[in-house]
Amino acid sequence: MFSIERVDFRDPNAPEQFTRSLRETGFAVLEGHPISPERIEAAYAAWGGFFNSEAKADFRGADGSPEGFFPFRSENAKGAKAKDLKEFFQVYPATKLPEDVADVTRGLYADLVLMGVTMLQWIQDCAPDDVRNALAEPLPQMLEQSEQSMLRILHYPAQDDVVVEEGAERAAAHEDINLITLLVAGSAPGLQAQDTGGNWHDVPCDPGMIAVNTGDMLQLATGGAFPSTTHRVVNPESGGGARFSMPMFVHPRPDVALSPEKTAGAYLAERLREIGLAS
After folding, report:
1. In the prediction, which pLDDT does 278 show?
2. Cα dist. 3→28, 107, 272 in Å?
3. 61-105: per-residue pLDDT in tens?
């Protein structure tokens, strides 16, 4: 049975519960975590104003840059023909941010990186011995001096006036590239995860929750012990409004060896070309 566990961050058994859910489903959902609801609400409010303004075009990154604003239909999932029905802003440690969102976004970024280190420590501590021993270095250590972790602010516009071509979704079925993703609960439902039988399941997204999923880099580094589960964001039913979400993609340093053949830097460059964000 495909069952994504809801884990109370404060529970003494949380590390074991969290790690078990990741191993079985590729997902876990955290409640009672230390990031304040006020910070999350303030971030959504500030970015909502940004995406509804004309100023967003001023923050479009240079060609080939992974930072800044990406307009509607900029990205496609690996292997997908249609572009995703979303626009977004990608934040790294040194990214220039709009003044109205800068303070709350920097604070949220720092909170999520710290939580990512904690989650990787939980996985490190609770993974089977053979999995731990096969890692090139401990998982939390892979983040030391990393400037690659990226906070993505996603806006899925209301679709009342959007021509939706066949096969186009808010986010087509895909797997994430990184070690783990921390997804602050979206402002509306729509996130689904796929089980090994091809069935889709709604991922809990109550306000205040953070969904965590395994990325391809962790799957590769652990020899498949932690599966990178396919997921998507489905289109709303007729009349559905806009949706916002804020995933933090936790990335190791580029030199980290994920396998004898691939470093994290080489793996990331390969995937960015596949999804149309690099040439």
Report:
1. 66
2. 9, 32, 31
3. 877 788 999 999 988 888 888 999 999 999 999 999 999 999 999
Question: Does the predicted TM-score (pTM) go above 0.90?
Answer: yes
Instruction: State the sign of the Cα–Cα–Cα–Cα dihedral 132, 137, 141, 145.
Output: negative
Cα Rg for the chain, rounded, in angstroms? 18
User: Are the beta carbons of 177 and 271 closer than 8 angstroms?
Assistant: yes
Helix/strand/coil percent split, the chain, to 5: 30, 20, 50
Contact 248, 182 (CB under 8 A): yes
The CB-based long-range contact list for 123-128 (8 Å cut-off, 24+ gap) reads 123/18, 123/19, 123/22, 123/180, 123/218, 123/226, 125/15, 126/15, 126/16, 126/18, 126/19, 126/20, 127/19, 127/222, 127/225, 127/226, 128/225
Cβ-based neighbour number of residue 123 at 10 Å: 26
What six digits make up the tokens of 219?
């799957």
Domain boundaries, the chain: 6-274
Q: Do 264 and 256 touch, CB atoms closer than 8 A?
A: yes
Q: Which CATH number fits domain 6-274: 1.20.1070.10, 3.60.21.10, 2.40.50.140, 2.60.120.330?
A: 2.60.120.330
